[in-house]
Description:
By secondary structure, the protein is α/β, with parallel strands linked by helices. It is built from eleven helices and twelve strands. Strands 1-6-5-2 form a four-stranded mixed beta sheet.
Amino acid sequence: MELLISHGSALEYWRMYANMPNGQKRIQRWRSAPGGPSDARAFAKAKSLGLSMPLAVTVCSHSAKRPSNGVRPHQFAAPLPGSSIIRVSDGILVSSIELCFFQMASQLPLVKLIELGYELCGSYSLYSGSDTGTGQGFVQRPPLTSVKGLQALTLRMGEARWKRNALAALRYITDGSASPMETILAIQLTLPYKYGGYGFPMPQMNSRVDPVKAVKQSANRAYYRCDLYWPEAKLAVEYDSNAFHTGEDRIDSDSRRRNVLDSAGVDMITITSRQIRDVRSFEQAARLIALKMGKRLRYKRAEFARAQSGLRNSLFDWLPDVAADWLD
Length: 328
């Protein structure tokens, strides 16, 4: 009998083991046995992975949807798309990254699902229970998937209940974020006014900018990456987590970086952690970005303030898993 670890338990698995090769293999077809997640040996193996209990698992039949000690079953009656399940050892299966995102659409509100999408398509993983607002508690790793990958799986889910939720979130996710605070910055700048964001176009994250020939010799690296970059506007927004660390090496590096971007015709705006956390300071930064883009911020102050407060509460606080109902 095989145990399919899914939902939040699959997310925890990928955060823990994404960088650890262990013979993972995609399987083309899966249908759980009638008895469901009751096999003691499979459960013991799953428990040895160090995941939080109870384990979230997926079953295919209603008869198998019986809660037991250490297991929280989720029923999915339709066949799951091929290659959306990963065998990690004998008897132990895990939802793929893409399927995990889709499953979390049933448990997370819009903003938290967008935040999760940035993480999965970015180059960092949160530790379980970490605080995304601090910039701490995460590790760097290669991207686990892409927005196209998440979209492809979601579109293959037929009439599955949470498909619209997943597609709604995917409209506001982009590849390439390198940290939780870059994600929080991007979300606040790009979500529509009705969700508390400033409605800027989606940027390229950690986009490469090469020095022009005139300054190549004075540059201290072969190329630079911009945290958020809008190529049409030739505008870069940099998140600076160490704004008050002003040693000589740091000053020299920042000067070279700015010279390279200036030579390429790129305007650079730096936003600190303190600015991100302070509503008024962030508003000033957003207005400067709008000025550089030739865009006017048009929103009703009272309505926007309420939406922005909700967005910031969601981004800077961990919320309990809830069934989402935020469709347009």
